[in-house]
Amino acid sequence: MEGFVVSLVIFAAIFAIFALGLNLQWGFTGLINFGQVAFMTIGAYATVLLSLRGVPLWLGALIGAVLAALLGLGIGLATLRLREDYLAIVTIGVAEMVRLIAENEAWLTRGTFGLQSFPLPLATWNPNWLGRSLMVAMLTAIAGLAYWRFWRWLRQTVKSIPPAHLTNGVALSLGYLLSLTLLVIGLGYASSTLKQLGTVPYWLLGVLLLGAMVALVWFYVWLGALAKARIPAWSNSLGTVAALVCAALGLWVYGYSASALYHYDRNPSKAGLMLISVVLLAVIFWALERLVRSPWGRVLKAIREDEAVARALGKNVFAYKLQSLAIGGFLAGIAGSLYAWQLTTVYPDNFQPLVTFNAWTIVVLGGAGNNVGTILGAAIFWGYQTVTRFFLRDVIPLDDARLGAFRIMLIGLLLMVLMVWRPQGILGNKDELTLGK
Fold first, then answer.
1. Is the full-model pTM beyond 0.85?
2. pLDDT of res. 398
3. φ, ψ for residue 324 (rounded to 5)?
4. How does it sit in the membrane (predicted)?
């Protein structure tokens, strides 16, 4: 279980950094970039190729991120004067061009054979008890700051709920979530039992399961809308209960993560990468929060809302867009370095367009224009990806290839429900949506 949790934390942190770059470009600036994976590809390949030639890992990762930022500048200089839809098309093309270069230029990237056996950060480090304790302390400090911020949000949210409605709202929200969880578990258990018994044809079991899932989702969406109309402070109560559940799961994850760091010798490369990923995520989040709350960030929001107004006020819209694209590319380059270290082998197929759309899923899920929402979206997305990879195998009557497609279809269904129920995302602001304007 410890290795499972460590891998989950690493992937969630990497894709949180990756999606934070996209959130800066789209959520704060309004740039529709469907080629974010191109920057990750540059960062990953540059880091690995330089490290194989003896360049220190930290320097290789920095150079990879800078090269990704330069690619962002190049794309921006060529495309930022285009309309949003043309920008999206061009960025998809650039991402595929970068991937195909990595696949075909074997003299540089080893092509489809990929890159293996490259150095990994902290893989050969053997810390004593003091070093392990310091690593646990760093993780604890970051977790403590996160929970302190959560506590401030929770206290403010609870204050917004009238005391007369607080108890009833929280109790009903708890019942709503608990009953949904039990029904999903019961549905999975029934399907798993029928699959093992083999009394129902697989095609019929699949149809029945899909119908039951659609009916369950529709019923709980309807029930939630009914509760919102009739129960005062329903949305805040439901959000409070869901946040408390997530906080409890976070403590569970923290326990295993701290144990992995203290028993560092069990898996040095993964434990070290987990700490690096979490620390980098914390630093990047802090820096981005400072940036988007500064006058520079307010100009980005003004460009997102109406760039003609920002231009009329004397702002160089093109330069601000260029900076946003370059910084987002820099962050994706850092994520690419971490992604390469996590995979331990780098192939061109690791950087399919689906990677970009995973980042879009994360941003939409958490809420555009909200950095905390992006991190929450990454945690939920990778929690879903990891759990369903094992849970659905015993429930869904499909082979591995079809099961992967089904998991993508399922998260698409959940996103559609979210767009109906809460189009701004979990923590997003409805007034800051940038699509459909």
1. yes
2. 67
3. -65, -45
4. Multi-pass membrane protein
